[in-house]
Structures are given as C-alpha cells and as structure tokens.
Amino acid sequence: MTPRGYGSAAAYCPRCAAALAAAPPTRCAGCGYELFLNPRPTGGLVVLDGARFLALRRAAEPGAGRWELPGGFCDGREHPADAAVREGREELGVEVVLGEFVGMYLGDYEWQGELLPVLDCFFLATLDGGEITLDPAESTGLRWFALADPPPLAFPTMDAAVAEVRRRRRG
C-alpha cells in the first residue's frame, strides 16, 4: 500500500499546491520545498510481573481482537519515554514505573487509508499499585503471558520487543 496522495499525480506540495512529480522524498518543482515521509514515533511498554508480561486485546482497527502491548503515538515534541508513561496511565488506569529501554523498531501502521511508517520505542515497566481499569475504547481484555510463550502480537515490532526482553532474561 502506498501512502494515499503520494503515489499518484494527485499528490500536491503542502506549501504551494503544485503537483509533485514523485512520492517522498521529493522536491517540489514549483517552490523547491523538500518533502519527506518520516516515521511517527511511539512509546510502548513491556509491563513485567516476574517472567510474565501484560498484553491487551485491541478494541479497534488495525488488528482489532489481537493481543498488543500498551502504548501509542507520541504527541508533538513528546519524548517516547513520556508517551509510554502517559499511554500506560490512559490504557491501564494506573501509574507505571518505567525501567530500562528495550529498543526501537521500524514498522508500519495503517490509518485512514494510509500506511504510515512508525518508529516504535519500547521500555520495560512495572505497575505502581492499584487495580487495572481498561479504557474500553482501547482494549476489551487483558492477560498475563509467559515471556517464554507469547502469543502472536498485533504488530511485528511488539513481537520483536518481547523477544528482546526474553533474550536479555536468558543471558
């Protein structure tokens, strides 16, 4: 899937509205504006309880009904670590304590008919007490899974993050 508007003659410069000759990265022939398609950063959590991690069942597309890690897109100029803590609070209804950085993974996210590049940044985390209260717009359930036997997750970047945590725990 090509990002909508950038794969055809219907793609226009956001500065001067001239038709673009190619998909990003490209330069507008009309005004010289350079257009790029950069990945959107996210902050995600691998919430641990011993040798188990927390997964949520997605309520919405893409991937409704599949298991996922808590997290989401960064707000403008928000650090991925801050986004991970905010998303944990919003999706779980409790505070999380951020641990070490797991890694960054380049992936895709289909939204509004576009395939967006994302840069998923994952952090280890633990819950800071309280009872989990899921946001029903985000998740329909939760489950603790063994790191040694995870289910397929909604996005390959999440599978990679869990595999990295499992590798670190073995080593």
Automatic annotation (TrEMBL):
The keyword Hydrolase applies. It holds the Pfam family NUDIX. Keywords: Hydrolase. The keyword Hydrolase applies. Residues 38-168 form the Nudix hydrolase domain. SUPFAM superfamilies: Nudix (SSF55811). One of its GO terms (molecular function) is hydrolase activity. Its cofactor is Mg(2+). InterPro entries: NUDIX_hydrolase-like_dom_sf (IPR015797), NUDIX_hydrolase_CS (IPR020084), NUDIX_hydrolase_dom (IPR000086). PANTHER family: GDP-MANNOSE MANNOSYL HYDROLASE, MUTT_NUDIX FAMILY PROTEIN. This is ADP-ribose pyrophosphatase YjhB, NUDIX family. It comes from Micromonospora pattaloongensis.
